[in-house]
Amino acid sequence: MLSKEEILKLAKLSRLKLSDSDIESVSVHLGNLLQYMEDLKALDLSSVQPMTGVEDAPTVLREDVPQPSFTHELAFMNAPEVENNHFVIPKVIGG
C-alpha cells in the first residue's frame, strides 16, 4: 500500500487535485494494481515464446481511392480566425 505522501506526489506529477477522501480510495486502487504487477512478475515465463502479434491472419486493406473532401469554406466555417486559407492558432512554442 502506498503512503499518503506517495499518493500526493503522484497526484502532483499527474496534475490531479485529490481531496482527503479520494486519497484513501486512490491508495487502495493503486495498491491493488501494484500487487497485480508483483503477481505478474512472479510468474515463470521462461518457456513462453514472445509474441509478435495477437492474430496470424493477414490484414485486409481497402483499395486507396481518392474521395471528395471539404471545401475551404466548409472547413473554415466554424474557425475562430483564418488567414491566407490557414487556421490561426496561438503560438505554443517559445513564448
Structure explained in plain terms:
The protein is mainly α and 95 residues long. It has a domain at 4-41. The protein has three helices and two strands. The protein has helices at residues 4-13, 20-41, 72-75; strands at 82-83, 86-87. Strands 1-2 form a two-stranded antiparallel ribbon. Strand 1 and strand 2 form a beta hairpin. The chain is flat and about 55 Å long. It starts with a helix and ends in an 8-residue tail after the last strand. 1% of the residues are buried.
Note the main attributes of this structure:
95 residues, mainly alpha, two-stranded antiparallel sheet, 2 strands, 4% strand, flat
List the helices and strands and how they pair.
Elements: H1 4-13, H2 20-41, H3 72-75, E1 82-83, E2 86-87
Antiparallel strand pairs: 1-2
What is this structure, in a nutshell?
The protein is mainly alpha-helical and 95 residues long.
Low-confidence stretches are none
Helix and strand run: HHHEE
Strand content: under 5%
Radius of gyration: 25 Å
Mean pLDDT: 90
Tell me roughly what share of residues is in helical segments.
Answer: 25-40%
Major sheet size, sense and barrel closure:
2 strands, antiparallel
Strands side by side in the biggest sheet: 1-2
Structure summary, number of beta strands:
2
Quickly give the structural class.
mainly alpha
